[in-house]
Amino acid sequence: MDVIEIIKSNVPLDWVTLPQFAKLIGLPHTRLYIAKEKWPEGVVWKKIDNKIYFSLQGWNHWMSQQGIQKALECEAAASKLISQSKEKGAGTSFSRTRRRQRILPKRESYELV
Known about the structure:
Blueprint: H1 3-8, E1 15-17, H2 18-25, H3 29-35, E2 45-48, E3 51-55, H4 56-88
């Protein structure tokens, strides 16, 4: 059965084969086979009788958790930057050290007489 037929059938499904899952999320199945090592086994994927299956529900749950985790990391980094700027104080000024200018030797010019 084709992936489109599965979707149109409105049959609730969870575990699909590697090629079907690759079509659903838009990754080549060769890349998906390698990428699965970064995902939790038993939640997103599992191997049964030397065949790999992927869970759509597990994938969606894991992806949403990754989004939440990234958001928390960004929020923590932003609050750290804010607290560091408050520690330095609002009255401090940032001075820039002037860079030494490179002085090129003057070219000699010759006149024809």
